[in-house]
């Protein structure tokens, strides 16, 4: 772990790569912005795998099973050489929903996420008939805000329906815009008194699943001290990894870029101050992931 007196900013992943047997890398904000891939980022992960023999598991709060995420990455130009496997919040959410067989589920989110429920013993139904809520986001995230859902969530919270949030992210970058995510609705639902369950970052279940995938790839358990988490989101990527005792490479030019000065030349003092204010730590920081 970096001390207060040692440099925090590194020039590339290669500066610390040899210290780790596995990487858990965020996807949105590190490998792409929802519109285009970051070439240097996927080249860095490919180089890490090729030059160190380490394994890379992508760990994302995407509220869908991993096959559509693989397809999305391929369409954006992220090569298979950049990673060994993917664990999504959707994958772990399915494990949770499987513990509620026979449920009548109200889906809160866009139709593109309906694959989340395929093969599960749940029946999709209306708000009035539901005994469980599955939330993957806003119905129209380009035009709506969480406040548009306040009345509906208040009705559901009054009935104490369990709310399973498939994506803990509050906002995410889509190109040069910030888009509201399921986590914002989950937070509002909980504020309104409803019971909330979240399995993605920063919560433990998705990290347990990612560790299991790393162990399968490497053929042995990988010690936490030999795992590096890479991410750009303080409340999800950084807090999640920190709470699990994992070293972190903080990508500063992601969702919090405006907080640290020029995106390509961030102020290390501002980064350290923000981490301290949040009660978090990082092994290293870099503007954008690169080798």
TrEMBL record:
GO molecular function: phosphatase activity
GO cellular component: cytoplasm
Keywords: Hydrolase
One Pfam short name: Hydrolase_6
Entry-linked NCBIfam families: HAD-SF-IIA, HAD-SF-IIA-hyp4
PANTHER family reported in the protein's UniProt record: 4-NITROPHENYLPHOSPHATASE-RELATED, OS08G0542600 PROTEIN
Name the record gives this protein: TIGR01459 family HAD-type hydrolase
Organism: Roseibium limicola
């Amino acid at each position: 772990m970096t001390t207060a007196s040692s440099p925090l900013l590194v020039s590339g992943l290669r500066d610390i790569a040899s210290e780790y047997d596995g990487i858990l890398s965020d996807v949105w904000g590190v490998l792409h912005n929802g519109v285009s891939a970051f070439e240097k980022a996927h080249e860095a992960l490919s180089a890490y795998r090729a030059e160190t023999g380490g394994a890379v598991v992508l760990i994302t709060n995407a509220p869908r099973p991993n096959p559509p995420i693989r397809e999305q990455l391929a369409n954006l130009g992220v090569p298979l050489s950049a990673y060994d496997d993917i664990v999504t919040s959707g994958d772990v959410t399915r494990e949770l929903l499987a513990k509620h067989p026979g449920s009548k589920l109200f889906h809160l989110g866009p139709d593109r996420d309906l694959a989340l429920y395929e093969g599960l013993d749940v029946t999709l139904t209306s708000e009035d008939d539901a005994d469980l809520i599955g939330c993957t986001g806003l119905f129209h995230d380009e035009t709506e805000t969480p406040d548009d859902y306040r009345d509906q969530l208040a009705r559901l919270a009054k009935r104490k329906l369990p709310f399973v949030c498939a994506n803990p992210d509050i906002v995410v970058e889509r190109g040069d815009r910030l888009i509201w995510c399921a986590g914002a609705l989950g937070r509002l639902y909980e504020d309104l008194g409803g019971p909330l369950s979240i399995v993605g970052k920063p919560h433990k279940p998705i990290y347990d699943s990612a560790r299991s995938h790393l162990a399968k790839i490497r053929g042995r358990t990988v010690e936490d001290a030999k795992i590096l988490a890479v991410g750009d989101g303080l409340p999800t990527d950084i807090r999640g990894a920190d709470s699990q005792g994992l070293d972190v490479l903080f990508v500063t030019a992601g969702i919090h870029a405006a907080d640290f000065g020029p995106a390509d030349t961030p102020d290390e003092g501002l980064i350290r101050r923000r981490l301290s204010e949040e009660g978090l730590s990082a092994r290293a920081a870099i503007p954008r992931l690169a080798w």
